[in-house]
Design goal:
Elements lengths: L11 E4 L3 E7 L21 E4 L16 E18 L2 E2 L1 E6 L2 E7 L5 E20 L19 E2 L3 E5 L3 E11 L17 E10 L9 E7 L2 E6 L5 E13 L14 E9 L2 E10 L4 E4 L2 E4 L2 E2 L2 E5 L13 H13 L4 E3 L7 H10 L2 E5 L7 H4 L4 H16 L5 E5 L9 H17 L5 E5 L13 E5 L10 H14 L7 E5 L18 H17 L3 E6 L5 E2 L12 E2 L13 H17 L2
The structure holds alpha-D-galactopyranuronic acid.
């Protein structure tokens, strides 16, 4: 399943799923590799594996870190477009033995367009690397697992010489209303629509090309002048009035298809369908407003991680996670610490959940950020994340650089650049960053929203009330005055099944009591716009973290890695439920 809905009616698209050949590629540990001893001896024989999947779920490779090859064949003729939704974490792609290109970063899609394939069978080889190397600035031993494999779906499209690459829709709030149906009734939602095309071969002289866009009962059409080359170009930018649409809200997440059709000499030649929700997000004083109404976040930080699937969760497993989050009265997810699978975002759109999506970076100190590849690779993640996830109404905030060097001058430069890049790509959503630099953060003036990771009653022997009061004072004195404040992490660990009534640390009882106190105190603080619990489920961490992570798990999950609820589940459900009720009556 590529998405939760069909993205084409005209274009032929297939998922290159099913069984692929898989072979481990043995290699000498590279100089400076951080983890040679941990790698398993590599069996050379090839085996059949499903794609998407990750190799830590293949017997014998539970701890493999290194290179491997995935191969498959397909029948095709003409121009093809290959889209990899996510390969963990480096991919080198060859078609019929010819290099198409390389891509680094596990969590964002990439595309290769290949003109004029001869009719017949074609062979696709993907060499994947999940080693920790200096070349891969964002991956190093961390408090989550850097898995390996083709971990998200692969799509094969047959495309004409000019094809549609992307459609962006930016909803524009009614001029005279609050975007929520309230107002003087004269306002009409508008949508700013942009369509990007790709031309592989210049059309014959005299060919007429046009783009038609259909959205919410409206149709616009405009001529297109093709630009030759394997790159994308903006082919259409227009604003459409959309009278009578229902806004996208958490309670009623109305979604509308947007269909772009490419007409060649008046005949449909290619199409792309995406989905749109009419809603605006804006910061108003110290509140974040959705359609003019302040939101209160009852959220969970969530890693893409599962004992049976690694980071290649099938849609069924995503559904289960979202069911549990909603059952606990959660209304938001933070995609800590990287962009998420599109299908998960589709489901959030459908459920009316709010998403904080973040670029890939966790716990980078200045040395990590001075990796010569860091700036370019981080910028690429941001670009790919925003370009591909732009239309999701559920995404209400972009996050960057979780707990990185926001306390140094060089770090600040990096934060500045990344915020500037986001604002260049998308002005319709606020930006933030989760910090833990309680006494020396130098970047609080930069984002629209200030976000703190705090662990009262856990890493700190202080109450949440005290920590929030202290943080607020610091924030106000250091550039963050008047901005909304999110508690982007709060939580405590517990080992599933370890129970006693002695308030023993690591017991489910201790975690449940701690969460109850943390959440109650946080929501009692009027300056707090919302809270993301660290974290939804227990997750596997990289081997090097074994000293501080029993069972090699970050066990601050409210459910364990198999999604079995710990005692904290009911505590969270109760507090989130009360907050939701209070909110509903405001
Ligand atoms: C940090 C970090 C998380 C996780 C957490 C913890 O706040 O952002 O990724 O490591 O701490 O469990 O300590």
């Amino acid at each position: 399943m590529l998405r939760t809905f069909d993205t084409h009616r005209i274009r032929r698209t297939t998922e290159l799923g099913g069984l692929w050949d898989f072979t481990v590629l043995p290699e000498e540990p590279a100089e400076g590799a951080t983890e040679p001893a941990a790698s398993e001896p590599a069996p050379a024989a090839s085996r059949k594996v499903t794609v998407p999947s990750c190799w830590q779920t293949y017997p014998g490779l539970e701890n493999y870190r290194g290179r491997a090859r995935y191969s498959t064949t397909f029948e095709a003729e003409g121009n093809v477009r290959l889209e990899f939704k996510g390969v963990s974490h480096f991919a080198r792609v060859e078609l019929d033995g010819r290099l198409l290109g390389e891509h680094y970063n596990a969590y964002t899609p990439f595309v290769f367009a290949v003109p004029a394939l001869a009719a017949g069978e074609h062979r696709l080889d993907v060499t994947v690397d999940n080693a920790f190397r200096e070349d891969y600035a964002l991956n190093f031993p961390n408090d989550y697992m850097s898995y390996g494999g083709i971990s998200r779906p692969v799509a094969l499209d047959l495309v004409p010489d000019t094809s549609i690459e992307r459609v962006h829709v930016t909803p524009v709030t009614p001029a005279h209303g609050d975007g929520n149906g309230n107002g003087d009734g004269e306002g009409v939602w508008k949508a700013h629509v942009e369509v990007w095309c790709r031309t592989l071969r210049k059309p014959r002289a005299g060919t007429r090309m046009a783009l038609r866009v259909e959205l919410a009962g409206q149709t616009v059409e405009a001529d297109v002048t093709p630009c030759e080359g394997e790159y994308e170009y903006l082919a259409l930018a227009t604003t459409v009035e959309c009278p009578g649409v229902r806004p996208w809200t958490c309670e009623d997440p109305a979604l509308y298809p947007v269909t772009a059709t490419l007409l060649v000499n008046g005949r449909p030649a290619d199409d792309l369908i995406d989905r749109v929700g009419f809603r605006t997000v804006r910061v108003n004083g110290d509140r974040i407003e959705l359609n003019g109404k302040p939101i209160v976040i009852r959220g969970f930080c969530r890693h893409e991680d599962h004992p049976a699937f690694g980071n290649a969760l099938p849609p069924q497993a995503m559904q289960v996670d979202l069911d549990l989050i909603e059952d606990m009265h959660g209304n938001a997810v933070r995609t800590s610490h990287y962009p998420n699978d599109e299908r998960f975002l589709d489901m959030c759109d459908e459920r009316g959940l709010l998403v904080w999506e973040e670029n890939h970076a966790r716990g980078m100190d200045e040395e990590h950020m001075r990796n010569p590849h860091f700036q370019a690779q981080a910028a690429q993640v941001i670009r790919e994340m925003i370009e591909t996830h732009y239309n999701h109404p559920s995404i209400v905030i972009w996050g960057i650089l979780n707990e990185c060097a926001s306390n140094t001058a060089y770090g600040r430069e990096c934060y500045e650049r990344q915020y500037a890049l986001i604002r260049e790509l998308d002005v319709s959503r606020p930006v933030t960053s989760a910090t833990c630099h309680m006494r020396d953060d130098m970047c609080l003036d930069l984002p629209d929203v200030v976000s703190w990771n705090i662990y009262p009653y856990w890493y700190e022997a202080k109450s949440a009330t005290r920590m929030i009061t202290d943080q607020l004072a610091y924030t106000r004195e250091h550039g963050g005055a008047g901005k909304p404040l999110i508690i982007s992490e709060i939580g405590a660990g517990a080992i599933y099944g370890f129970r006693n009534r002695d308030e023993e640390i690591w017991t489910e009882e201790y975690q449940a009591n701690t969460l109850r106190k943390q959440l109650t105190e946080a929501f009692d603080e009027p300056a707090v716009t919302g809270v993301f619990i660290w974290q939804f489920c227990d997750v596997r961490v990289d081997r090097e973290w074994w000293r501080v992570r029993a069972k090699r798990r970050n066990d601050k999950g409210i459910v364990d890695e198999f999604r079995r609820p710990k005692m904290a589940y009911d505590a969270v459900k109760e507090v989130f439920g009360e907050v939701a009720e209070r909110q509903a009556t405001v």
